[in-house]
Each structure stands twice: as structure tokens, then as C-alpha cells.
Specification:
The protein has about 180 residues and is mainly α. About 30% of the residues lie in helices and about 0% in strands.
Length: about 180
């Protein structure tokens, strides 16, 4: 632990030297009074260094020694004002004249051919068949596993093979700027 003299500030010449602080005794007093409740009628101990000296009520303005340039002591009261309105209470005025954006109806989905429909049924139905067998605790037979796994793989391969590559389009963004 560092002593008060080692903190980098020299004691003022006007202050009397302080006796060394017995830290062990202070800690023992704090620990001994830890569980004690404070007396309800007693005020909290206020350090004497925090007290503000009282000033004369009306100093004589003609006396230069009585006039001080120090600011008056601050009051120790807290004034709490109720919040009447804040930034979250702000509401925009509704203008009926403004046109509001209404999105257009989405275009209908393109009609899928029979092969694509059966490929989607196989991709989704194969794992669902296996999941149903597991959840219902039915024994997985060879035909259920073949139908589930084979349906998924066959449907996936069909969907990937039928994807359009659009190689004929001239809108290839990978070619760079065309001048």
C-alpha cells in the first residue's frame, strides 16, 4: 500500500502533519459493523471537510475586503421536472392528399410441366416418407429406404438437369463492358 506522502503531492505548509492511519483498525471496524443496521433517527456522518463555511448575510459593498470574487455556493437540492413530451412522442401529420405506395400484384407463378411437378414431389416426399416411418416407429424396410433415398436423389437430379442455362442470351455480365 502506498502512503499519503508517496502519492506525488507534498503536504501543504499550512496543514498540520497528520498521524499515520491505522488501516487494520479501520478495516476491523468496517467488518465488525457490516451486518449492523443504521439507527433510523441518526443522520449520516458528514465529513467536516465537506462543510461549506457560512458567509455573512449582506456584506458591505463599500468595504473592499468584504467583496469576494468567488461564486456563491451551489445549492444541494435536486429539482425533478416531469417529462411532458419527448422525441418518441412525435407523430407525423397524416396527409390524405399524398399518394401512398401500393405494390402491384405479383405475377402468377409459371405453370410447371408434369415432369417438374413429379420431381418436386420426389425431392420433398422422399425425406418425408422416411421421417414418417421414424416418427411412427415403423420398421424401415428395404423398399421404404429405396423409395425415400432414391426419390430424393432422382428428383434432385431431374430438377438440376432441367435448369435453364440461357447461354443464348447476350446479357452475360461476365464479359465486361461492351463498347
Amino acid at each position: 500500500m502506498a502512503d499519503r506522502e508517496d502519492e506525488g503531492t507534498a503536504p501543504h505548509e499550512e496543514e498540520p502533519p497528520r498521524p499515520p492511519l491505522d488501516e487494520d483498525a479501520v478495516w476491523a471496524a468496517l467488518i465488525a459493523g457490516y451486518d449492523n443496521d443504521p439507527e433510523p433517527a441518526t443522520a449520516a456522518a458528514w465529513p467536516e471537510a465537506e462543510n461549506v463555511p457560512a458567509q455573512a448575510a449582506d456584506p458591505d459593498p463599500t468595504d473592499p475586503a468584504a467583496v469576494t470574487t468567488a461564486p456563491p455556493p451551489a445549492d444541494r437540492t435536486i429539482v425533478i421536472h416531469p417529462v411532458i413530451s419527448g422525441p418518441r412522442d412525435y407523430e407525423l401529420a397524416d396527409d390524405e392528399d399524398e399518394a401512398h405506395f401500393v405494390p402491384p400484384e405479383p405475377p402468377p407463378l409459371p405453370d410447371a410441366d408434369v415432369t417438374t411437378k413429379f420431381a418436386w414431389i420426389a425431392v420433398l416426399g422422399g425425406p418425408l416418407l422416411l421421417l414418417a416411418f421414424v416418427l411412427l416407429q415403423i420398421e424401415l424396410t428395404w423398399w421404404a429406404v429405396t423409395l425415400g433415398v432414391g426419390g430424393f436423389l432422382g428428383g434432385f437430379a431431374t430438377l438440376v438437369a432441367r435448369m435453364s442455362t440461357d447461354e443464348e442470351d447476350d446479357d452475360d455480365p461476365g464479359r465486361g463492358a461492351v463498347v
